[in-house]
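Figure 2 data, in text form.
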Amino acid sequence: MEYDNNNTGALFKADKKSERHPDYNGSCEINGMEMWMSAWIKTSNKGQKFMSFSFNPKEVQAAPKPVQSPNSGFDEEDDIPF
């Protein structure tokens, strides 16, 4: 029988390199999408400890860079040719 990991995850104590880095990190699956998970231990204004979470998709697609042919005749320093 195959285990269903949907809507589950795990956090592990992180090796913090600065105060801005998360206290814990790990991964999870939310609605079938694999995500990176980060958590910070914070203190509320009333002194109560809590965890703040961040979720980011594991596969982030970068926007494609425009490709310019070297023979296009358009120099970036020129005015727009229209």
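Caption note: The two ends are 64 Å apart (CA to CA).
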